[in-house]
């Protein structure tokens, strides 16, 4: 009896924080768990864009909404620059923090975060290159729906 209840609890918990779709390259998916709306897309082995959107709760600023990139299985170097190109247009540079993320916990950070979220939602593709030369191109088809509303920490 205890084993059955434990198994049922495990099944419930594993589905509670599950993504709404299976992982598949070039398909944006979204999910929600522990107060965080999440969206991500993968492209090949170890390449991923991950968007974390925290809203509706009082969060410390340093735990606010953020964007993370992973190429070849690892994030960018801390406090480095990313080169980003949307739809094969002009290159733009974005700084990452000490954890390799684009955060939204200061006025300038929030401005970059909000701009990047807007661009992720309205373009078709994004090329990302880290300062060490790792690079990948991701689709943005379906990103607007997967990301949804994603306020910066500074704006809350």
How would you summarize the topology of this molecule?
Elements: H1 2-16, E1 29-33, E2 36-42, E3 48-54, E4 66-70, E5 81-86, E6 91-95, E7 101-103, H2 107-122, E8 125-129, E9 135-139, H3 143-147
Antiparallel strand pairs: 1-2, 2-3, 3-4, 4-7, 5-6, 5-8, 8-9
Describe this structure in words.
The N terminus is likely disordered. Strand 5 and strand 6 form a beta hairpin. It is built from three helices and nine strands, in the order H-E-E-E-E-E-E-E-H-E-E-H. The protein has a five-stranded antiparallel β-sheet. The protein is of the alpha+beta class and 156 residues long.
CATH class: Mainly Beta
Q: What's the total number of strands? A: 9
Might you state the CATH topology name? Immunoglobulin-like
Nearest-integer average pLDDT: 85
Keywords: Signal
Signal peptide: 1-18
What descriptors fit this protein?
156 residues, alpha+beta, Immunoglobulin-like, five-stranded antiparallel β-sheet, four-stranded antiparallel β-sheet, 3 helices
Summarize the structure.
The chain is of the alpha+beta class and 156 residues long. The chain has helices spanning 2-16, 107-122, 143-147, and strands spanning 29-33, 36-42, 48-54, 66-70, 81-86, 91-95, 101-103, 125-129, 135-139. It has one domain: Immunoglobulin-like.
